[in-house]
Amino acid sequence: IFLPESAKDQQKTGVILAVGDGALNRDTGDRIPLSVTNGDRVIFSSYAGNEVKVDGEELLIMSESDILAIID
After folding, report:
1. Hey, which residues does 45 pair with through a beta bridge?
2. Which pTM does this prediction carry?
3. Interior CA angle at 50 toward 46 and 53, to 5°?
4. pLDDT for 5-63, tens place per residue?
5. Could you count the other beta carbons within 10 Å of the beta carbon of residue 40?
6. Which of 28, 36, 39, 44 could be bridged to 48 by S-S, CB 3.0 to 4.6 A?
7. Phi and psi dihedrals of 7, rounded to 5?
């Protein structure tokens, strides 16, 4: 199989604007804290998340598992 360079999945970067409460542990009912916080710069796959428009601004909503890395 030959894939040209242009066919590779390109990563994207972004800044976290808001985070939720974390995932719910079904066994205990406790919240599992997130490892990202507001203002973190992250790398994510180009197909990650769902695009939404809020007050005319296009944003992505994604789960923490879609994030590939946090950039310092």
Report:
1. 11
2. 0.75
3. 115
4. 666 666 789 999 999 999 899 999 999 999 999 999 999 988 889 999 999 999 999 99
5. 16
6. 44
7. -85, -10
